Amino acid sequence: MPWSDQGGPRNQNNNPWGQPQGPWGQGGGQPPDLEEMLRRSQEGLKRILPSGFGGRGFAILVLVAVLAWLLSGLYTVGPNEIGLNLIFGKYMGKTQAGLNYNLPGPIGSVIKLAVTDRNVTDVGFREEAGIVVDGRRRGPPSAPRGPEAPEESLMLTGDENIADVKFRVIWQIDPAKPEDYAFNVANPPLTVKAVAESAMREIVGQSQIQKILTADRKLIEPASQQLMQKVLDDYHAGVLVLQVLLLSVDPPQQVIAAFRDVTAAQQDLQRLGNEAEAYANRVVPEARGAAARILQEAEAYREQIVAEARGQASRFEQIYAQYKNAPTITRQRLYIETMERVLGGADKVILDDPSKVGPGVTPFVPLPAFTPFQGGRK
Predict the structure, then answer these.
(1) pTM over 0.90
(2) pLDDT for 146
(3) 74-77 and 98-101 beta bridge pairing
(4) CA distance from start to end of the chain
């Protein structure tokens, strides 16, 4: 060592400071001899390394160690992950999937986040063991299974009733802001659950119990999802809420039978109303059609009668004009035409003039009574 050849006072323990060793050494009360330790380390390296290994070899060894340490900063990011580079605990940037580099520890470190994995948070019940693995549900969402958590599911509605609401939130880390997820919130899953319960209580508190149980169930899901996302964005939590699923909305267990009866009665009322409306929609057009038909028939009958009356009046006027010209002939003709109409379809017997010789009765056979001969001569 360079300082081993320098002069200066030394004691029997080879201490350059000339002070007793103290309690650390065997001489009593002196600190450890750093020069001696370094000299012994150098001698040990000389015994291990080949002969002729001097200061240059030691420098090469140190350089190789430094290179190995620098190469240890290489790391890979999976296709579903994003890496966050830290230098002395300070966030320096994010890396995408593939081979990346950051200064190795203890200077640098890397946090890997699975940003594409979907996570499930259940509110109002505890999922059975084996259903959720690694924060993700295996299989399609269904009715809640497992122990209930009434302290989470019982919520006050706007009309001062109590609803038992169990729902599931599906979320993931925001790929655009994974650093918010890693650094801004201490426990993101617990924060998501608290925000979900708070948002659902606010939405349910603005609704009525009957609408929640029937028509408004499909409206609660998107409304609570939007409210959750807004609150999480205000927190800069780096979380994307993908879906909110209402698994069950029921009244409390103590009054569930009465509420079901009320719901059944309301459904019957709605069904009967729909049937009545359908009947009205069928009968009213039929009645309107029948009324229109009767009006049209009456109008046609009126037109017919008026036309016939006008025709009779015109005919009478024409006959009257001829009657003024030839009264006798006209009366005789009217008489003959009247007899023709009256006696045309009746059986008739013609009586000849009784003053003539004979029986006075002439048989009359109407011509249509004769059947025409069919066929040729024999």
Answers:
(1) no
(2) 60
(3) antiparallel
(4) 168
